[in-house]
Amino acid sequence: MKTVFSPLHSRRQVKTELDGGLLIEPHEKPSRAETILARVKDQALGDIVEPEEFGLEPVKRVHTDDYVSFLETCWQDWVAEGKPGEAIPAVWAGRGMRHRIPKDIDGRLGYYSFAAETSISDGTWEAARASANVALTAQKLVTSGERAAFALCRPPGHHAHADLFGGYCFFNNAAITAQAFRDQGCEKVAVLDVDFHHGNGTQAIFYDRSDVLTISLHGDPDLVFPHFLGFEDETGEGQGEGFNLNIVYPPKTPYSVWSEGLERACQRIAEFKPDALVVALGVDTFEDDPISFFKLKSEDYLSLGKRLEQLGLPTVFTMEGGYDVDAIGVNAVNVMQGFEGKA
Ligand code: OKP
Ligand code: MG
Ligand code: ZN
């Protein structure tokens, strides 16, 4: 399997993540991507290719023009205001307040976000753009006949809505990929999100559509991020009714239980009969992940890959979360190797 990777991911190198009342070193850090890349090389998974430049058009099929423009100039606007640190949203339109776009950068940071842990600094825009290009290049490989491709995206994307960043995400790489499949002639596309966290952005983007089936397996949002979306009674709306599926688990869920939901997800996908599959691949389901609470083991990722292969679909994997940097390479590449038949 080919891996698409851009060294430009390292342009996203923020110093801060608001966590527990402190500004800590971010969990979503450059070494994550480098460790996965090293494992891809070590295991000789396949060629490693740099992304092509697709421009903003396929990004804007999913994200609003004004959101994209905001991200492009956010850091300069912040610096121009004389702010001393990294750009961090600190104010939102609460219940009863107006959802209008303010001129001031503090106001716009709040308007275009849903969480405060995701700081912005110089290079975030370039890295987010590169991450989308990585996903789109993998999509092009699969459209051109590859059975599957691994988009080694960083920053991740599945929390990003059409016009909201948060949860370490800016552009929703999985959604952009699914939309690219649609725009190139696929009638139906499925997005399966196996990251520990709910893929709230992907769900929201396709919520009223029946052409893109969205499924996410995740930790109970009553207990974990993103807190305000991802419950099992969210099944889609309008035309999209019945085309969103959330499968929620409690703390300490092992693969033996998690895989029952995977089976339900796979059966729903098989019934949907999509022309392509996008897997939003987080490996923060791992037992030693520092911010998550499932109990998957490294060998379980081989089983996951094997089950995904059995769907028999052209498949793009977009990298999402995974914060135990020591294990992230083994776990992510195990999915690809399981897909390719390694037991
Ligand atoms: C991004 B992805 C940790 C709180 C974490 C943000 C989690 C973002 C996860 N104290 N809040 O889905 O892996
Ligand atoms: Mg998920
Ligand atoms: Zn996650």
From TrEMBL:
GO MF annotation list: histone deacetylase activity; hydrolase activity; metal ion binding
Domain Histone deacetylase: 28-336
Keywords for this protein: Hydrolase, Metal-binding, Zinc
InterPro entries from the UniProt entry: HDACs, His_deacetylse_dom, His_deacetylse_dom_sf, Ureohydrolase_dom_sf
Needed cofactors: Zn(2+)
UniProt KW tRNA-binding keyword: no
Domain of life the protein comes from: Bacteria
GO biological process: epigenetic regulation of gene expression
Family annotation (Pfam families): Hist_deacetyl
UniProt KW Methyltransferase keyword: no
Assigned protein family: Belongs to the histone deacetylase family.
Name listed for the protein in its UniProt record: Histone deacetylase family protein
Protein's organism: Marinobacter salinexigens
